[in-house]
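Input record, target 12 of the design panel.
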């Protein structure tokens, strides 16, 4: 693992914007670095809402899971008005027939259904499908759902209540992985982060600390952050949107209840994103948010990943590095770098060392691994 530590504690930096988002639940501000603080205020208030919540559901060849997914929509215990906005991204399987079968059931339940899509030879990608589903929807709040997942009955109600209190935030929740035991370490990370770590651990390899299938936010704030990247296959549209949310002064919050069955399978869109693409975006965001503000720092990893991070940094930030550190005495004693499999983030000698130095995460150091 690679950890970035501050060598000058008087110049430590927290992840926060000078122009934080307004706490007014009906307004938000779009922030542009090129504008003055007075110029970068945008009233995104809208008055044309028809539903309280729009469930945003992009669909591409999801027939295998759609019955369970749509059943979970029908079983929501939310007492406000709900809309389901489906965008079919060139499915070639039985997805449209399944959607048609459920449309009447859902509308009998009081869920208004809007269906859009296209029938071109190739899908246009998750980012495009999500944007189209948002555009054709009309709820005050947006609840994002993947077609291969399923919601617990309390999801919309509990996240809606949280969104009313935590404005200009991406609201998430805890998840149950299916099949059980798959991506065990990742799932544990998703569910066990503290509210503070939702901001301090945004540079780790796992991606957004509030994962996309659990997102819930106001339409005003979504419009202020901007649309998903529509580059198509291989683009980490959720990570890029998450970073932009933070740039605009947005926050994160997690409802500490398991509200989503989060399915793992080989056909998931996330597998199309190259690890190197994620790495480059993470490094750039780390430099932008932290390293460019520090006068010097230490990389806490004397192995392969620590060296890779060094090589990935800009020349200006490479010059700020004062040392490479490690808690593995055998590695240090050898006097040369050697790659070893990383251990869990918590419970090891590394964490004990940080604690003994009285270093504070998000102030004195950040996790990058």
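The sequence produced for target 12 reads:
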């Amino acid at each position: 693992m690679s950890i970035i530590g501050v060598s000058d504690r008087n110049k430590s930096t927290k992840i926060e914007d000078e122009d934080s988002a307004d706490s007014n639940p009906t307004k938000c501000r779009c922030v542009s670095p090129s504008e003055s603080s007075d110029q970068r205020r945008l009233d995104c208030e809208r008055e044309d809402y028809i539903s309280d919540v729009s469930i945003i559901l992009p669909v591409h060849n999801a027939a295998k899971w759609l019955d369970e997914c749509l059943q979970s929509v029908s079983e929501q215990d939310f007492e406000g008005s709900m809309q389901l906005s489906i965008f079919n991204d060139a499915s070639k399987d039985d997805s449209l027939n399944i959607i048609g079968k459920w449309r009447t059931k859902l509308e009998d339940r009081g869920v208004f259904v809007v269906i859009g899509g296209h029938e071109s030879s190739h899908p246009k990608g998750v980012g495009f499908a999500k944007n189209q589903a948002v555009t054709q929807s009309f709820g005050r709040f947006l609840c994002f759902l993947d077609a291969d997942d399923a919601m617990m009955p309390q999801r919309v109600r509990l996240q809606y209540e949280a969104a009313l209190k935590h404005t200009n935030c991406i609201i998430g929740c805890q998840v149950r992985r299916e099949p059980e035991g798959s991506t065990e370490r990742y799932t544990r990370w998703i569910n066990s982060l503290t509210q503070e770590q939702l901001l301090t651990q945004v540079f780790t390899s796992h991606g957004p600390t509030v994962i996309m299938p659990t997102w819930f936010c106001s339409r005003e704030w979504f419009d202020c952050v901007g649309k998903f990247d529509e580059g198509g296959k291989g683009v980490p549209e959720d990570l890029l949107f998450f970073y932009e949310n933070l740039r605009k002064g947005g926050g994160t919050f997690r409802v500490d209840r398991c509200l989503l069955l989060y399915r793992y399978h080989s056909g998931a869109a996330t597998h199309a994103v190259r690890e190197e693409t994620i790495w480059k975006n993470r490094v750039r965001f780390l430099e932008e948010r932290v390293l460019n503000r520090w006068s010097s720092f230490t990389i806490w990893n004397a192995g392969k990943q620590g060296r890779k991070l060094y090589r990935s940094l800009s020349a200006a930030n490479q010059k700020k590095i004062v040392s490479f550190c490690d808690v593995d005495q055998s590695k240090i004693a050898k006097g040369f770098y050697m790659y070893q499999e990383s251990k869990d983030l918590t419970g090891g000698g590394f964490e004990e060392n940080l604690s003994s130095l009285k270093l504070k995460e998000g102030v004195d150091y950040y996790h990058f691994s």
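The CA atoms of residues 178 and 264 lie 6 Å apart.
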